[in-house]
Write a structure and sequence with these properties.
This protein is of the alpha+beta class. It has a domain of 116 residues. A hairpin with a 5-residue loop joins β3 and β4. The radius of gyration is 16 Å and the shape is globular. The N terminus is likely disordered.
Length: 172
């Protein structure tokens, strides 16, 4: 008798985030003119595609799309303003991580794309909150400074130290 193993809903949303990023990144890579509106359109197209393939609600797809846009704009702003590398935005070294998702992030994080993506929303502070999905990187608790490391897309938990629910991306 075989036992069906059900996947954790949080892992499913992390996987959706990565698939949505993959679809958007592939579209950006092929595009002649890269822009923030194009990124938004590509994420919308990815949501439509995934809504046909995955067993998740439209509400979950919309939330994950918002989280992905937040992360991509945050990375674009950080990298283009600081001339830094993706590992600096992530807050950890990427050399030892074998991840197709991280590889794709590194491939699409070229300066031209980043500079153009930055144009949409100049320098508004980006907030991260418990319950949202985030991509790889390091978040810092706004209340106590505790660092949370995400080596793949996943749900943001409350701070393990003080239980606060508001974070910001680590800035070297």
């Amino acid at each position: 008798m075989s036992q069906k193993h059900e996947q954790d809903p949080i892992d499913i949303l992390g996987n959706i985030y990565e698939k949505m990023y993959e679809n958007a990144a592939n579209g950006l890579e092929k595009a002649e003119h890269k822009s923030a509106p194009l990124l938004h359109q590509l994420i919308e197209e990815a949501k439509e595609k995934l809504s046909e393939l995955e067993e998740v609600t439209r509400e979950d797809l919309d939330k994950v799309g918002q989280y992905l846009e937040r992360d991509m704009h945050d990375a674009a702003t950080y990298l283009s303003e600081n001339g830094a590398e993706l590992k600096d935005w992530l807050g950890f070294e990427t050399a030892l991580i074998e991840s197709e998702f991280l590889y794709q992030m590194l491939q699409t994080a070229d300066p031209t794309t980043l500079e153009l993506l930055k144009l949409k929303d100049q320098a508004e502070a980006v907030g991260y909150h418990t319950g949202e999905i985030t991509g790889p990187g390091t978040l810092v608790c706004d209340q106590c400074g505790e660092k949370l490391h995400f080596y793949r897309a996943g749900k943001i938990p409350p701070c393990p130290k003080c239980h606060a629910t508001s974070f910001h991306r680590l800035r070297d």
